[in-house]
Design goal:
By secondary structure, the protein is mainly alpha-helical. It folds into two domains: 150 residues, no CATH class; 171 residues, no CATH class. It is 75% helix and 1% strand. It has 16 helices and two strands. It has a two-stranded antiparallel sheet. The longest helix is centred in the first third of the chain and has 31 residues.
Length: 322
């Protein structure tokens, strides 16, 4: 497979996963903004802008920060390259370039998503929650079409690789931003029950878990009240939670050898495989207390740096001409 084709498949998948993860982040922000007596409301609204590096671009267009303007800017503005609709457009452009490598069902799913997204960009979104659900459904549809119809060849593995690299990055960013806004649950490691003085913390942890489709998994695993320590453990170290950092890194470690076996060069992707293995092993043998002793923000910052280095290794191994 040509390096350019592999790159387009990989980024098609990353952009679609990014759109889904962005609406998950906006969904949390939207939920927290509706809480009565919400702490740090302005900071909560600014979080998606800070994570995506678009705060300055937003401030250049808008005099003040409001929920309505934020959701329009991050959701449907095509002039914002980091918006949800822009991500869907870029995913569709990459899919169009590799039309011969994907199935008809995959192309129809992503092309229809773009056509609907374009109409939403023109007419606006009146109900953010419905928009969030729509984006997640379209992402699930494309992922299901990929899993159910695409031959297990290079194209399949590059698509899967892009999904999990992007998902790990976004899970870490979302947990980092939101955990800094939810106090004192992480610092005290105390259960957060309702009713109590920490009721806003309860609803914030609840929204975070739901945004990562991990609410049911939490209660299946721990069967008690929300607890900052256990939420951290679930989203970082549990291998059976699909959006946890460990689950994503386990998938990346398993996918890379599949690609190398098909490329044929004995040392193809060796650096990327090494980094992926080191990252996965660190999570496999990680302990939540050690993470919290380090400081959750500091630990997640280091993880994101390692994730960026892994992405760079993948870029050099597979997408650059040698």
């Amino acid at each position: 497979m040509l390096s350019r084709t592999a790159s387009q498949l990989y980024w098609m998948s990353r952009y679609l996963e990014r759109a889904e993860n962005l609406v998950r982040m906006l969904d949390v922000t939207h939920s927290l903004s509706l809480l009565p007596q919400s702490r740090g409301a302005a900071t909560e609204l600014a979080a998606p802008l800070a994570v995506t590096g678009t705060l300055e671009a937003y401030q250049a267009r808008h005099a003040r920060l409001s929920a309505e303007q934020l959701f329009r800017f991050m959701g449907v503005e095509l002039d914002n390259p980091a918006s949800v609709v822009s991500c869907i457009r870029q995913a569709r452009e990459n899919a169009h370039a590799v039309r011969g490598q994907i199935t008809a069902e995959m192309w129809e799913a992503i092309n229809a998503s773009w056509l609907e997204a374009r109409e939403l960009a023109r007419h606006g979104v009146t109900d953010p929650s419905s928009f969030f659900d729509w984006v997640k459904e379209r992402s699930h549809l494309f992922r299901g079409a990929t899993y159910g119809t695409l031959q297990r060849n290079d194209a399949y593995w590059f698509i899967r690789l892009g999904t999990f690299v992007e998902r790990a990055d976004n899970t870490a960013r979302l947990l980092d931003v939101k955990s800094q806004l939810i106090a004192p649950a992480v610092d005290t490691l105390a259960p957060v029950d309702v009713p109590s003085e920490s009721a806003p913390d309860f609803y914030a942890w609840n929204a975070l878990l739901r945004s990562l489709s991990a609410f049911e998994a939490y209660h299946a695993a721990y069967r008690d009240s929300l607890n900052g320590r256990r939420v951290t453990e679930l989203l970082i170290l549990r291998p059976d939670v699909p959006r946890s950092l460990r689950a994503c890194c386990d998938e990346i470690r398993a996918i890379l050898p599949q690609i190398e076996a098909r490329i044929g060069a004995e040392d193809a992707g060796r650096g990327a495989k090494l980094r992926a293995g080191q990252l996965a092993l660190r999570l496999e043998y990680g302990v939540v207390d050690e993470i919290l002793d380090t400081g959750l923000h500091a630990w997640l910052t280091a993880f994101l740096e390692d994730s960026a280095l892994l992405s760079l290794s993948i870029q050099r191994a597979y997408f650059e001409a040698h």
